[in-house]
Amino acid sequence: MTTATPSSQSAIPCTIAFIGGGNVARSMIGGLVGLGMPASDIAVSEPDATLRAALARDFGVVAHAANTDAVADADLWVLAVKPQVLRGVCEELAQHAKRIRPLVVTLAAGIPIGAVENWLRTDDQRPPPLVRAMPNTPALLRASATALCANAHVSAAQRGRAQALFEAVGLALWVDDEALMDTVTATSGSGPAYVFALVEAMQAAAVAQGLPADVARALIAQTVFGAGRMLVESGEDAATLRRRVTSPGGVTEQALRCFAEGGLDALIAGGIAAATARGAELAAVFAATETASVA
To answer: What is the fold of 191-271?
Structure first.
């Protein structure tokens, strides 16, 4: 089940630490500052000196080389690091998490909440409130679609804070069942790549029909942009919008008939099913590796 919770910029806590200053973190920082959050209330740790300097210069945030310095005064941590380094980051910060009890948000694809809880758990056996988030790359344009899933320690107020954080870069919705995060990854997480693949195919087809490549690219890019806006802003579902631009016996109907005969719906369903299954496989491999390392 997926739910939305009302939130606002005011629900964002006073101090946020981003661990990792890559593209997604940068887009989120830009979104928060753009909404009016004081840059002085945002800290970021980034090992690359060039990226660190750019974050401080472009947004005015406090940039650190050390993770422990970034989280020192923060009550919300965003772990924006690659999955393969997340465990080390969590273990480094576990004692700080015990002392501060922050709301922790992880962006690492394929890493379940339980694993992060274990890495952050100290001798008191109480993991911090934890949110697993799956944004997608349009976060760079503040147009992300993000799914959120929380552990049992996250309060209603903290859910509002987490949602407000991701609403700074787009849409944010809650998924109650963490098992559905594999489907989220296969749908919205990977979705931009599917759209780009469709655009590639449309461009190639248009060029094959004689349209100049630059004209084809511009027309198709704007078409995708406009269609997306219609979906978001009209409140109508895709089927309704499709019917409105499909005149009986017309050009659009002919193309759609060809797509249907070629099995477009089945191809898309199969692709998302395959991506969902692959996500579950990777999670299982990760779990097996963790079990072996503990043993």
So the answer is: ProC C-terminal domain-like fold (1.10.3730)
- What is the pLDDT confidence band of residue 8, given thresholds at 50, 70 and 90? very low
Q: Considering the domain delimited by 2-186, tell me its CATH architecture.
A: 3-Layer(aba) Sandwich (3.40)
User: What is the side-by-side strand order in the sheet with 170-175?
Assistant: 2-3, 170-175, 144-150, 130-134, 103-106, 76-79, 16-19, 42-45, 62-64
What's the pLDDT score for residue 284?
Answer: 78
Whose structure tokens read 């944010």?
172
Query: For the chain, what are the domain ranges?
Result: 2-186, 191-271
Q: What is the pLDDT of residue 6?
A: 43
Asked whether 98 and 117 are in contact (CB, 8 A), the reply is: no
Rounded-to-integer distance, Cα 295 and Cα 285, Å: 15
Are the C-beta atoms of residues 189 and 134 closer than 8 Å to each other?
Answer: yes
Mean pLDDT for the stretch of residues 22-28: 91
Instruction: Check: CB of residue 139 under 8 Å from CB of residue 24.
Output: yes
The number of C-alpha atoms within 13 Å of 116 and in the hemisphere containing its C-beta is 30
Q: Which helix (H) or strand (E) holds 35?
A: none
| DSSP state, residue 129 | P
| pLDDT, mean of residues 130-149 | 94
Phi, psi of 170 (to 5 degrees): 145, -145
| Average pLDDT value for residue range 48-75 | 95
3-state secondary structure of 171: strand
